[in-house]
Amino acid sequence: MTQRAWDGKTYDRVGTPQAEWGVAVLDRLLLVGDETIADVGCGSGRVTEELVRRLPRGQVIAVDGSASMIAAARERLAGHDNVAYEVQDLRELDLFGRVVDGIVSTATFHWIHDHALLFGRLRAQLGSGATLTAQCGGRCNIGRVLDQVAVVMALPQFAGAFENWTEPCHFADAPETEVLLREAGFGEARCWLHDAPVFPPEPAVFLGSVILGAHLERLAADQHDDFVAAVLARLPEPFEADYVRLNIDAVV
Questions:
Q1: Structure pTM?
Q2: What Rg value do the Cα atoms of the chain yield, rounded?
């Protein structure tokens, strides 16, 4: 995963769209209530909390690459004794032999460029009949926003910070993802895209913390607000994040 830093508490406050998408992903699970499910890329635990509610006799393994996110998840889920926590890079995911009935993930996989490696690691944690149910940014995700971000990155006051810039996200298409899942050893794989535009109530905070975090890490602290403001100034009001979601349903 990208090494960008996350502020778990801020994400917990502004990440309502991601949480709502995540609950819709959970609705695709066929649960009895006693399963063991790993939530990989659990973030601040808002979706994990709903998963725990749906598994009254089950177990949840909450995994994230950010210690700040795991700390926020621990705080949110305090009192639930059926949750284990792991700070792990998903490219090296290891559940240490724990048998899980499924893996869920929301708003995470696009932060990993090598999906072949990712799906191989996920497959290695799953036995026969186990499921992968996920959603992340897909092809053309926030395309209109990123077009304007690129313009701002090229402005003289910011351009020097973005020499040798590599985009932090990989927004994959559905057909290529199905191929990679099957090559990783999943017997069934169905993927599809859908549009999910949102109008965040705190545009500057949302843009800075959710979308532009990796960009701001390249800039001096006293440039952060100016960079976010310059991007917002190039976008129509009210601010619309033109999200496209890639959905994944796969079975081993």
A1: 0.93
A2: 18
Residue 110 has pLDDT above 60, yes or no: yes
Torsion angles phi and psi, residue 215, rounded to 5 = -70, -45
Q: What angle do CA 243, 244, 247 make, to 5 degrees?
A: 135
Q: Which of 100, 101, 95 is nearest to 121 (CA)?
A: 95
Structural domains of the chain, with CATH: 8-139+168-200+243-251 (3.40.50.150)
| Residue 246 reports pLDDT greater than 50 | yes
Query: Which pLDDT score, from 0 to 100, does residue 7 have?
Result: 65
pLDDT tier at 16 (50, 70, 90 boundaries)?
Answer: confident
Residue 32 in contact with residue 234, Cβ under 8 Å? no
3-state DSSP of the chain? CCCCCCCHHHHHHHCHHHHHHHHHHHCCCCCCCCCEEEEECCCCCHHHHHHHHCCCCCEEEEEECCHHHHHHHHHHCCCCCCEEEEECCHHHCCCCCCCEEEEEEECCHHHCCCHHHHHHHHHHCEEEEEEEEEEEEECCCCHHHHHHHHHHHCCHHHHHHHCCCCCCCCCECHHHHHHHHHHCCCCEEEEEEEECCECCCCHHHHHHHHHCHHHHCCCCHHHHHHHHHHHHHCCCCCCCECCEEEEEEEEC
Tokens of 59: 């177990």
pLDDT in tens, 62-74: 999 999 999 999 9
Contact at 8 Å (CB) between 59 and 38? no
